[in-house]
Amino acid sequence: MQNNQAITLVTGGNRGMGLALVRALSQAGQHVIMGARDLEKGQSAIDELRQSHLSVDLVQLDVTDHASIVKAVQTIKNRFGQLNLLINNAGAVFDFGQQPATVAAEQLRASFEVNYFGLIDVTQQCLPLLEQAEHAKIINISSMMGSKTAALDPNSEVYGAVAVGYQSAKAAANMYTVQLAKELKRAQSSITVNAIDPGMVATEFGGATPELARSMGAQPLAVGIARTIELATDWESRVTATFSNTHGPVAW
Ligand SMILES: NC(=O)c1ccc[n+]([C@@H]2O[C@H](COP(=O)([O-])OP(=O)(O)OC[C@H]3O[C@@H](n4cnc5c(N)ncnc54)[C@H](OP(=O)(O)O)[C@@H]3O)[C@@H](O)[C@H]2O)c1
């Protein structure tokens, strides 16, 4: 399959790595649908891309709102009838620096709503459309922060970081990645499911500014999306149930 035949959905596509993915994949020839929970933010992001004559669409999509997901998927179904690539990129952190002994239950629940239940709800609603495609992929934007191996490794860059709600939700989403990949493989489906660690990237994630994040060692957007772009544009690759970054496999 060629990239110019691919219909792609990126959740949380209005800024940060999501926007960079929408731009790069449409530049690669894919028709990319940007999911944005706030239509105004999505519209200004999409206007800029359309000025560069990129093939992009916009849908309202809040991953914590089931009705919004159902409506967005129905819109894609009516227009395209199938989906080749789902990138579950939408994510949020609510508990940076909160200690496990005292972190508030609401912060833990908020993390799981976006990073775990939201990802699963979007995936389940998109599966019938992905099944309509001859070639299809699901890419979950995870994080090294969700790796228990990294959390226990004093040499890891995330060893000292604490955001137990976010970390647990990403770790749980990693297990969903593995189990869905196995289920689809058993069913001899053509859909692959993989998780990506983008590394520490200069975005507004967690209320930062890209400048502040850069001063703390975060990588440019182009580096953060590199592994995802590689996987998202290689239609020969059948890898499934992997967790990787630009350096290779990441320990779960
Ligand atoms: N930046 C890093 O260092 C880093 C490292 C590892 C992993 N990640 C992961 O990479 C992904 C992208 O993060 P980023 O750095 O690009 O962060 P970002 O700039 O904060 O962008 C996050 C995106 O997710 C959207 N979003 C948040 N809650 C949502 C919801 N309920 N429904 C739909 N969209 C929602 C945001 O929409 P609004 O604009 O409306 O808020 C925004 O478009 C996330 O999954 C994050 O966990 C980031």
From TrEMBL:
Transmembrane segment boundaries: none
Gene3D superfamilies: NAD(P)-binding Rossmann-like Domain (3.40.50.720)
InterPro entries found in the cross-reference section: Fungal_SecMetab_SDRs, NAD(P)-bd_dom_sf, SDR_fam
Domain of life: Bacteria
GO (cellular component) term, any one: cytoplasm
Pfam families, per the entry: adh_short (PF00106)
A GO molecular function held by the record: oxidoreductase activity
UniProt signal peptide: none
Any single GO BP term: secondary metabolic process
Similarity comment: Belongs to the short-chain dehydrogenases/reductases (SDR) family.
Name of this protein: Carbonyl reductase
Source organism phylogeny: Bacteria, Bacillati, Bacillota, Bacilli, Lactobacillales
